[in-house]
# Entry
Amino acid sequence: MTELRALTGARGLAAWFVVLYHLRFSLGVPDAVLRVLAKGYFSVDFFFLLSGFVIWLSYADRIGTQRWASIPSFLLRRVARIWPLHLVLLGFALVIVLGLSVTGRPADPQFPLDMLPLHALLLQCWPVAREAFGVAALQWNDPAWSISCEMAAYLAFPLLPLAIDLKRTPTIVLLMAIAGSFTILAYVMLSRQAHELGDGIPYFGMVRCLTQFAAGAALGALWLRFRDKRTPALAVALVVSAAAFVSFGTGLLGEIAIIPTALAGLLFAIALTANHPANPLGWRVVHYLGEISFATYLSHSLLWKAYRMAFVGDPAHVAPPIMAVFLALVLGASIMLYHGVERPAQRWINRLPSWRRERLGESIA
# Structure
């Protein structure tokens, strides 16, 4: 299907919100701004919703039509999307470990070598692996926890279009499915004394991903239904999102209970206006930030660790020029990783099935 440009742009801004979230105590910003940046982890919930939304639009018909034969290709494409860049950045983390050793600095508990295979296979947030290996904190490349959960969502996703034709599912049932997903998330987290969506990531990350990914898929089915009835659907989405954000802002409802609904309404509103020329999220620069956003999201944490080792004495007091250089470094690294690693690796891996078919044809001939 045609790309919804504003969604790509929104992903780029969300990635930078995560960057600023991790840098917030080093930015020297006023307390009011700090409180906003402290909620940067909401971006990850937006990513989960967006991932389910886009993957439903991109693959549901293909899997529903071609059935089981389409699943290997789908999984290969998802692996090609996230795994090569992840491995490259784990290699960069090993360089940091080597740098600590060479300079005589103490080993960083962030990088336990015995856990490296678990992270290389993106299993660090899977409950079985977590319990078996005793993972109780984020390690190695912190943001990679979310793609560990996404990998589980990718494995589960084909079961949805194989089992259910969401095109024929009544609208009320789709809405109930979204509400049910968010209810499951709230129940699991609140019943275990979590207070914020970002709490206990090794324990709650998987349910946080799977429930919101599923809700995003249902939103994709709703978008197909209402994209030609844009005005009333947009009004409803904006009202729902605004009411949810106000409920959170006034303290009426906690973020676990209401923020997923707010983000779902926002995502749906952006999707309905995605290719309108006046939507600033579709502007060329913003759109490009979205294209390189995976590299931005996955690289910034390790880059900040290395940058602090080299140039920052006290992370709580970083001179503005030093911080500006780092932000430029993140942008430059994102561009290089996107064009030099992410896209070439995707193209190479995605060509593997065609190479296999060509070789099979040669052997038969």
Remarks:
- Residues 357-365 have pLDDT under 50 and may be disordered.
